[in-house]
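ARCHIVE CARD
Drawer: 12
Card no.: 0347
Subject: one protein chain, sequence and derived structure
Cross-reference: see card 0346
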Amino acid sequence: MSDDNENKSQNDPQLPGKIKDSARQIWLAGLGAYTKAEEDAGRFFDRLVQEGEQLENKTRGVVGKQIKSVEGRVGDVRERATGTWDRLEHMFDERVSGALRRLGIHRREEIESLEHRIEALESELQRLRGDHLDDSEE
């Protein structure tokens, strides 16, 4: 009895269409998720830029006061300012990277892996279509 069910599902002329529809829905869901993440990332990025500008203004004010009070040691102040900017840049990079990870924006390698999986599904679909056509010719 279960062999009959398996033969019915294997000989189902709608099976390739169903597989194609499922693969297309998976692909569209992936595109939709990517677009949503990109939109969210844009808003989040804008917020980070705004916070960065505020932080930059505060930092510039502090650095400006320090420069006036230690004009005789310009070289030392320059080294401190460079270190501060490097730390700020590092903090910004970490925050953006963390935000992108939390938003689920995938790395290039992950997207390429999905593309390979889709290609494999398409190949399997074509193979199934070919087998189906061969069976119907007999």
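Annotation on reverse: The CA atoms of residues 55 and 113 lie 39 Å apart. Helices lie at 2-10, 15-69, 74-102, 108-137.
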